[in-house]
Amino acid sequence: MSKRRLTVSIERFPIAGSFTIARGTRTEAVVVTAAIEEGAHRGWGECVPYARYGESVEGVAAAIEALREAIEAGLDREALQGAMPPGAARNALDCALWDLDAKQAGAPAHVLAGLDRLAPVTTAYTISLGAPEAMAEATARAAHRPILKIKLGGADGDLERIRAVREAAPDATLIADANEGWAEERLVSHLRACADQGFAMVEQPLPSDADDALGAIERPVPVCADESAHDRHSLERTARLYDLINIKLDKTGGLTEALALSQAAQARGLGVMVGCMLGTSLAMAPAMLLTPKARFVDLDGPLLLAKDREPGLAFEGSLVHPPKPELWG
Fold first, then answer.
1. What is the dihedral of CA 268, 274, 277, 279, to 10 degrees?
2. Looking at the domain assignment, is residue 328 inside a domain?
3. Active-site option among 248, 293, 307, 324
4. 74's torsion region: left (phi>0), alpha (psi -120 to 50) or beta?
5. Based on the domain organization, do 170 and 295 belong to the same domain?
6. Is 324 a catalytic residue?
7. Pick from 45, 79, 106: which residue ends a domain?
8. Are 92 and 64 in contact (CB under 8 A)?
9. In the β-sheet with 147-151, what is the strand arrangement from edge to edge?
10. Global pTM?
11. Which of 109, 126, 143, 162 has its C-alpha lying 20 to 30 A from 70's C-alpha?
């Protein structure tokens, strides 16, 4: 058997303009890539370290490097789940192993995952947090897109933002994402405002350590867990408080756990949203395997970059096509 070789890289991709949520503004996406070569085949995966979860680019790269000996000795995806905790580092390695396994088997990753086929899907497109007038202008420019994800969570002005973006895009499906930015005393009024404006869903309105209030109110619009939901260990509590769960590979620690989480969530009656951090097409490609069962898809990371990696995913407006083998899987 050929010896494996692991390569770890840090890459930077500028954002088109800037990207603002309740926690701050970014102008570039910084990603960590893991590549595993064995013989004539090479698999790779990308992750996006997230400070909200105590991650840094350097720390994630170091965590991947720390597993070099085991990876190069032949550690497989199943063993990886116990060798590393959930998070960005495990995600990069897990997706690299999926890609490598697919290339070695001569079969697409979705076939290895037990899926018959992958079809193009419509992704949400994100409108950054800003003043109501600025968000209305940005929404109007994107009003031709079928699904818009509206970032909320400002200290003030969210009621005005909710009304303004609906007026700017009367026909679009709107999703609100507060990124833990609402205080409990605003919860009922803000959920009602979203319901009145026909929003399809509200994502993570309260901080993850203060979201028990969601179980004590009547929710007039479906509420989706993001920061409150990582892997199957958090699922029992999530199912009591939320209607949907946003599955992101960087939270679950890779596609392996994400597929299991999706199945378990649906068995508990939770809807599934497939989400992403702000990364390139390489980060989005494995998440496409979750889309056949998803109620909402939010894989617009490459659309927000000034330049994606090549080859990347093919987008037609908001329609995203499954990855080509040259990219991943």
1. 150
2. no
3. 248
4. left
5. yes
6. no
7. 106
8. yes
9. 125-127, 147-151, 173-177, 201-203, 223-225, 244-247, 271-274, 296-297
10. 0.95
11. 109
Q: Helices in the chain by DSSP H: which ranges?
A: 57-66, 68-72, 77-83, 88-105, 109-112, 132-141, 158-168, 187-196, 235-241, 249-252, 255-267, 281-287
DSSP string of 20-40? EETTEEEEEEEEEEEEEEETT
**One of 151, 293, 307, 324 is an active-site residue; which one?**
151
Reported as a single tens digit per residue, the pLDDT across 91-143 is: 999 999 999 999 999 999 999 999 989 999 999 999 999 999 999 999 999 99
Beta bridge partners of 315: 320
Residue 248 annotated as catalytic? yes
CATH for 217: 3.20.20.120
**Residue in the block written with tokens 């580092």:** 89
Domain span at 261 = 121-320
